[in-house]
Design goal:
The protein is α/β, with parallel strands linked by helices. The chain has 18 helices and 34 strands. The strands form seven sheets. Strands 14, 15, 16, 17, 19, 20, 21, 23, 24, 25 and 26 form an eleven-stranded mixed sheet that branches. An eight-stranded parallel sheet has the order 7-6-3-2-1-11-9-8. A six-stranded antiparallel sheet has the order 13-28-29-34-31-32, with helices on one face.
């Protein structure tokens, strides 16, 4: 059965766990939800032990009064299946289902996401509880959708059954063992295999091709598990209810570009650095400084939030839901990392997400817990359970969203840039990092940091980005050129010949192709190519290189006029011009013999090769360089560097502008066309200057003359 669900308006709400309260307060909560104009809740996903306190004994009625109150209050509900947190009785009865994060090393009980979800015993018990919950509540009028599991792919599984299924998958793909020996180069270090049973366990693996195959298998298991749950639920519920999961971007055991095939609609978590960590432009920090966030959030700035939204839209190349984001602080297991958003930031992020395609924004969670590992992960209500600043901000934001919902619901974000991403390249960089930390140690986030730097270059110039997976490219190159005048091959290291040839034809057909470091260096099985780089792209790019280097300190970069435009960081591809024109070069006794940025006219288009990772100044230059060739019409502008603009088209065809001030100074924004402030319906005269408060956001619609 294909889902026929349709959302009718923007949804704004929170995860709700009445079962976690220290005392009964259902009436109080729903009264506050009514005051805050909350429109959606997520419930039930964490408490298998409540649904089934002991084997075969089910407690299904506790959710009924919550759903009834929600329906009475006009609140939609998403119910989660509880398979990511197994109950004690199941753990003790079947220890073989417990996830191993290394061979023979089970994850101790006391955490979550600690189960081998490919194990048949686990699947047997999971199906029972899934069916019980879904059959009980499938007809409740408050229920609009189902979330299967939660943040799948958190662990890489080393269980015996997973390893055996991995060997079988290799045999199916490669056939004769000699083919595997040849493709993976197993002559090296005497790794040749006589049969698949001789394959070594993944714990000690050093082979790059093995690593890619192992990670692909893990991701396939995760997708299959989510697909398995979806099939069970789809056989029970109405086609007007959707099925999704809560995707945590970057989990090691999933491929976000694959998992969308198991969903009716994408739903993601978006967590971000708050307070000064949300500033734009991002401050250059000394190594001693910390982000205003828990340590697990590795990057900062408004651009980082936009990148996550664009990644969410990439999963199914369509608009999406946000199932979790910051309401208050996000401390894991302690009070360390308590950085509640500054006034205005909570509203900014909600509107930022909506501007890039979010149909729902939901906080984790309604009330701050009093026990458990996440007892300092702040909700809309604090530990006192009384309304305070966060609740009041929620209420104000909800009012604004309701006011603009009719005009911004189901909008289409404007994206002048298509940016290619590739999960296998991320895995390859985790296994053999290209970048390094200041202390010389390998940076396991090499791929993510390079992605952020090039995405931010576009963000700096208000260029919208549509992120596209290498397996999501269309067949019609000319239509792709019309839709996206700029196409960035972001660090496409583990590369497919087909995609590289598509990129060449894109440039030939009139597009502006941008090539970034390490692109095309290895083939689709992570075997390094033997052509002179950049291989298939060489003629189109008009450059070649045979030398590359890490750099231990930034290297100045100057343009053709000798003006300093920023600095190269971390890595350099030693570009030698063939038919290209040098746009910028390094200022260095050795690296000065190479080009930093080149441009080559090719066919009806052009190819720019950016041979390093930019600091913020060079990234700003590069964003401006890209924007010069894009016809965008007039847009709101400001002399305040903290102001950015996201653009979209409404369902009715109006052009929308989401204008943000990511800083403490009042900003003035010039609006060069007649428009309307959607928040208050005030008309804005062409050429007017509007005031944007610190950490403020305004949404305007262009009015045709």
């Amino acid at each position: 059965m294909v889902s026929k669900f349709t959302l009718k308006k923007l949804l704004y709400g929170a995860a709700y766990y009445n079962e976690y309260h220290p005392y009964e307060r259902l009436e109080d909560d729903f009264e506050l939800m009514s005051q805050g104009q909350l429109s959606v809740l997520r419930v039930g996903e964490s408490v298998w032990g409540t649904w089934e306190p002991s084997e075969g004994i089910f407690n299904l009625e506790w959710l009924q009064p919550i759903l009834d109150k929600a329906h009475t209050g006009g609140i939609s509900v998403i119910i989660g299946t509880p398979t990511y947190a197994v109950p004690t009785w199941l753990f003790k009865k079947y220890p073989e289902i417990v996830a191993q994060n290394a061979t023979g090393r089970p994850i101790p009980f006391g955490h979550r996401q600690n189960v081998d979800y490919s194990h048949p015993i686990f699947l047997e018990y999971a199906e029972i509880i899934i069916r019980k919950i879904v059959e009980r509540y499938k007809d409740h009028p408050a229920v609009i959708g189902w979330q299967v599991d939660n943040e799948p792919g958190t662990e890489i599984l080393f269980n015996d059954g997973v390893f055996e299924s991995f060997k079988k998958s290799l045999e199916k793909e490669y056939g004769d063992i000699e083919n595997l020996n040849k493709v993976w180069g197993l002559t090296y270090w005497s790794h040749r295999l006589n049969n698949y049973d001789e394959l070594w366990r993944a714990d000690g693996n050093t082979n790059p091709s093995y690593n890619i195959a192992w990670r692909k298998h893990q991701a396939r298991l995760t997708t299959d598990f989510i697909q398995w749950q979806r099939a069970i639920i789809r056989g029970i519920v109405s086609d007007k209810q959707f099925i999704t999961t809560c995707v945590a971007l970057g989990r090691p055991g999933q491929d976000i570009l694959q998992i969308g095939e198991a969903l009716d609609i994408t739903a993601v978590n978006v967590y971000y650095a708050t307070q000064d960590g949300l500033s734009h432009p991002r401050a250059l920090k000394e190594h001693s400084e910390q982000l205003a966030s828990p340590l697990w959030i590795q990057t900062d700035g408004a651009s980082a939030v936009t990148l996550q939204a664009d990644m969410a839209r990439a999963i199914r190349q369509e608009n999406f839901l946000v199932t979790e984001t910051n309401a208050y602080s996000t401390g894991h297991g302690s009070a360390v990392g308590q950085f509640p958003p500054y006034p205005g930031q909570m509203t900014q992020i909600a509107l930022m997400l909506i501007s890039r395609g979010a149909q729902m924004v939901e906080y984790w969670h309604w009330h701050t817990l009093h026990y458990g590992n996440e007892n300092y992960w702040g909700g809309v209500l604090g530990h006192s359970l009384k309304p305070a600043r966060t609740f009041n901000t929620f209420k104000q934001t909800s009012s604004l969203i309701n006011a603009i919902s009719a005009e911004v619901f189901n909008l289409s974000p404007i994206s002048e840039v298509a940016m290619l991403i590739n999960t296998e390249s991320r895995w390859a960089f985790e296994h053999q990092p290209t970048l390094r930390h200041a202390d010389g140690s390998p940076d396991l986030l090499s791929y993510e940091k390079s992605l952020h730097s090039f995405h931010e270059a576009c963000f700096n110039s208000d260029l919208g980005v549509q992120i596209i997976g290498d397996k999501q490219l269309p067949s019609d190159v000319k239509e792709f050129v019309k839709k996206y005048p700029i196409f960035i091959l972001h660090t496409y290291y583990v590369s497919d010949d087909r995609v590289l040839r598509f990129a060449v034809e894109y440039a030939r057909a009139g597009g502006h192709l941008v090539v970034t470091p390490r692109t095309g260096y290895a083939d689709s099985r992570n075997v390094i190519r033997y052509e002179e780089m950049p291989g298939i792209l060489r003629e189109a790019a008009g450059v070649r290189y045979s030398e590359y280097s890490n750099v231990t300190k930034p290297v100045d970069v100057k343009n053709a006029d000798g003006v300093l435009i920023g600095r190269a960081t971390i890595w350099i591809d030693g570009l030698e011009v063939e038919t290209a024109t040098e746009v910028a070069k390094y200022v260095h006794p050795h690296f000065g013999s190479f080009s930093a940025i080149t441009n080559n006219k090719f066919g009806d288009g052009q190819v720019t090769y950016f041979g390093t990772f930019p600091d913020q100044q060079l990234g700003k230059f590069f964003g401006s360089y890209l924007a010069e060739g894009v016809k965008r019409g007039v847009t709101p502008t400001s002399t305040n560097k903290s102001v950015t603009v996201n653009k979209a088209i409404s369902e009715s065809g109006e052009k929308l502008y989401f204008i943000f001030n990511w800083g403490w100074d009042v900003a003035e924004v010039n609006v060069p066309f007649a428009s309307k402030n959607l928040g208050n319906d005030n008309l804005i005269v062409e050429g007017s200057t509007i005031r944007l408060e610190p950490w403020g956001v305004i949404v305007i619609a262009e009015r045709n003359k």
